[in-house]
Design a protein that fits this description.
Layout: H1 3-7, H2 9-55, H3 59-87, H4 89-109, H5 113-141, H6 145-176, H7 181-184, H8 186-200, H9 215-233, H10 240-263, H11 273-276, H12 279-308, H13 313-319, H14 321-331, H15 334-342, H16 344-362, H17 371-398, H18 406-438, H19 445-474
Amino acid sequence: MTEGNVIEPEPRANRKRRPMDRRWLALLLVCAAQLMIVLDGTIVNVALPAIQGSLAFSETALSWVVNAYLLTFGGFLLLGGRAGDLFGRRRVFAAGLALFTLASLLCGLAGSQAVLVAARALQGVGGAIIAPAALSIIITTFKDPKERARAMGIWGFVVSGGASIGVLLGGVLTQTMGWPWIFFVNIPVGLVAFALCRPLLDPDPKPDLSGGFDLPGAFLVTASIVAAVYAIVGAGTNPPAVTVLLLFGSAALMVGFLTVERRAKAPLVPPGVFARSPNLAASNVIMALAVVGMVGWFFFSALYLQRVLGYDSLATGLAYLPATIALGAISQGPSAWAVNRFGMKPTILGGLSMMAFGLLLFARAPVGGSFLLDVLPGMLILGVGAAFAFMAVILASTTGVPENEAGLASGLVNTSQQMGGALGLAALAAVAAYTAVLAGPNPDAVAALNSGYHAAFLAGAVCVLVGVLIAATLLKFAPPGDRAAQPKDPAAH
């Protein structure tokens, strides 16, 4: 062997090792940003009484501390996803981080109701820019299927477990340092993440806007989603006629959007995206149904713990730790292993089935229940099922999507999560309230409440089981290991 042949393997190994380390650091960066977004969806709930006392919110106005964030976050997700494809993912991700961090500072400094609500809306816009960009960065950075599954498992844990962490962190920060710190905690994370964007994330190509930017389509779809989210989050306070008008308006705007997309030179949602990725539509529906079950479980189990079992906010947050630990343990390896060993479809079916079983266990939790017998088993089963299901569904929704449409696919799956959560929670809350009323004049108000929670858990389980049916009949994948029959993944080339 020549001298050149002897020393050649070392630089090759170095060249392979450096990108590997950098890619996993990039994953930690986008996961940290995603965690900020997920936390802000729940961390505020625990602090609402303190915010109300500090800024003199009425009961009706207080809901907009949450709704303002949901409204803009849900409305701008699709636009944020497409912007990443057109203008560059690193560029858009960094802009979203800057906006979200600035909005967090404004929230913490808010001295009036109007400033806080406006800053929360700005936070939602920043989150809608970050979330799809973060997911598309993972999709395009990890091209090997096994590595992508592992990366998506970590990302899935952040998405699924962040809500539980938010409840605990919100209780601790509010009780020890005051409610502004639930927003100030984002600032150092946001600043460090922004500073690391350039060294860790791949540079963006020059933006290609030769076909123009679909401004009419962007306006119509954003307005349609905003109107739908506003109708949902305001259903409890707005007159029924207003809710109906908003939903009709949302539908009309969506029809207008679809009409514009057929004629646009560079459409926001290319008409053939679902044809090129046959599992994309089914995966988004499955995601929405799974989120209905997950959000319903989280919301009504917290109410069960507090209003039925008498837990305070901090004890409620601590009660979710076992489920969070289960999510973390499964997401860090077993979920990726299951996808690589059995395939995406069996993993989705198994995970969703476990989620439905966990919800059914909660549907029988009695008034005088105990944590170990009536709460912990359902939490663990549902947490483990969610760790398998969510990661596999996200993989299914992005497999086979061309790289130049990864942001769009990410925006679609994020929008499905947001709309599924908003629509599902509103529907489950109505089911719970109606069932409690049907319980009739009951001297035991707690028992009436619990009957409503049971109905909500059952309805959530039904939604998840519908997701199982859709996954079983509509998702099409080659068996694991059948490389010749695997659908080509343009993102991997």
